[in-house]
Amino acid sequence: MELELRGITKRFGPLVANDGISLSVAPGQVHALLGENGAGKTTLMNVLYGLMQPDEGEIVVDGTPVSFNSPKDAIAAGVGMVHQHFMLVPVFTVAENVTLGIEQADRAGLLDRRRTRREVADLSHRYGLDVDPDALVEDLPVGIQQRVEIVKALVRQANVLILDEPTAVLTPAETEELFRIVRQLRDGGTSIIFISHKLREVQAIADTITVLRRGAVVGQTEPSASADELAAMMVGRNVQLRVSKEPAKPGAAVLEVTDLTVRGDDGRTWVDGLSFDVRAGEILGIAGVQGNGQTELCEALMGLRPSSAGTVTLNGRSLTRASPRARLRAGIAYVPEDRTEDGLVGSFSVSENLILDLYDRKPFASGINLNLPAIAKNATERISEFDVRTGSPATPAGTLSGGNQQKVILARELGREHKVLIASQPTRGLDVGSIEFVHRRIIERRDDGVAVIIVSSELDEIYALADRIAVMYEGKITGFRDPGVPAAELGRLMAGGADADPESAGAAAAVPEVAPAPGAATLLGAATVPEAPAPEAPVPDVTVPDVTVPDVTGPGAAPEPAPSHGPTLPPDPGDPPGPSAAQEET
Ligand SMILES: Nc1ncnc2c1ncn2[C@@H]1O[C@H](COP(=O)(O)OP(=O)(O)OP(=O)(O)O)[C@@H](O)[C@H]1O
Ligand SMILES: [Mg+2]
Hints:
Blueprint: E1 3-12, E2 15-25, E3 30-35, H1 41-48, E4 56-61, E5 64-66, H2 71-76, E6 79-82, H3 94-99, H4 109-126, H5 142-155, E7 160-164, H6 172-187, E8 191-195, H7 199-205, E9 208-213, E10 216-221, H8 227-235, E11 253-263, E12 269-279, E13 283-287, H9 294-301, E14 309-314, E15 317-318, H10 324-329, E16 332-335, H11 339-343, H12 350-353, E17 365-366, E18 369-370, H13 372-385, H14 402-415, E19 420-424, H15 432-447, E20 451-455, H16 459-465, E21 468-473, E22 476-481, H17 487-494, H18 505-510, H19 518-525
Parallel strand pairs: 3-8, 3-9, 6-7, 7-8, 13-20, 13-21, 16-19, 19-20
Antiparallel strand pairs: 1-2, 1-4, 4-5, 9-10, 11-12, 11-14, 14-15, 17-18, 21-22
Helix pairs in contact: 4-5, 6-19, 17-19
């Protein structure tokens, strides 16, 4: 199927999200869409999938103009889409989810479901998807849930499959699996539209690349283009893919964690007697395969999750029993891993989100009144400083592009006074230019004497930022290393390899002695592992996200339900009314 977009324009009020975009997608090709945050990629795909109507332009299928008034039309024409935030029903089985929406078409629902189960099994077999039609979606790891979305599109006979940032939440092993599936589909004649901010992924999988900037196509290029070239095309300037920094000058320990233990409701030990400290002016990078307790550690440090043993102190003052709010007030800035759940209130404006936990403080409050000019001034400054692409400060944060939502959280947290910064996956979903900016800001905070913890599944990010690296495996720290450590040695520790004498680290790195954990297997063997940059000769493109080990939910482990709490940090009882007053008090 030949697909063509001709002159697509989509406006949201005065904002032109897509500005006369033309694009043609050939059969049996992987067409990558690159572009900075807010460039209009998701909007264009929403138009193509019939979720939004273009203001101008047309979609042409095999030479005939068509109009997609809903996804149903798009599906009928052979277009399938896997959204960045999956749209599966967790309590339904795979087959039920796949049938959802097509069921009504047939009167014999039951028969239809039986057919779907068979189709799921067939497709699963044909493409090596390994999806069990009877599994409950909520029991599946993220990578498999994504395959269910792919099966859903394939059952509907998609000839064009849209994947919007499919790798953002995958482990390296899951990403490789996805690429294998994508190549197989492509070889079978399916066209794939692939969106990612990870340049090396795009170089690895794309047959052709279209770059968008500020709603318009700025060019088309080949995957042989260098990361520097791609970055410059996307952002319109040269990007320093690896931010330079001076060696840390650590001061006294600011955050001290002793024997911290966190257990889940099911009795599982997520954090197992961890002890470490973070000193003023240093960045501790926490690396690890997803699901090894990093998320739970951060939540416990913020008081969002109870700890069953151990202590946390900030400048010698105990925070062990403090509420999340008290911890923020004590000087911890927090960038949560899940921005939509913990970081933002989507229905609140950008300017309200920029003061979420500060609205009752000076200068934003005087007495019980909000100081609106101060709030507006703060918003204007933060928006311009962090280059948040938004129609206006009054725009609901939920309508911003994914990367711009992340920037709002970073602007709020990095913009207020803090002694400790805990940032989990701080640059997930950000474009390369924004990653450069955020990395610079984090290093600046370090140089101002802030004690920083970065949890990242991107080894590149760990290397770019960390002054000291801790590797987590099954709730424990398997080793601390300095940032010159080879990636293979980190891989060994990430697979649960016992801490070795740093002297012998080099030897141990060559041949992992321990059978690698599933998520780490490819990390050790794959060519995608970046060479550890020698401190004196930084590799220029190491920050380009590539090796992903997100820790949203563990493979094989059902996501641990977080203790219920409101968006961001819930206000304490008795807080004066403010923009957060609508937050659920849980
Ligand atoms: N429903 C909406 N209402 C108002 N504005 C919107 C809406 N959807 C998108 N926009 C705006 O359109 C622009 C393009 O957003 P889009 O989500 O397409 O960007 P993107 O290229 O996918 O970015 P990212 O890489 O951050 O995901 C942004 O400025 C965004 O705020
Ligand atoms: Mg997007």
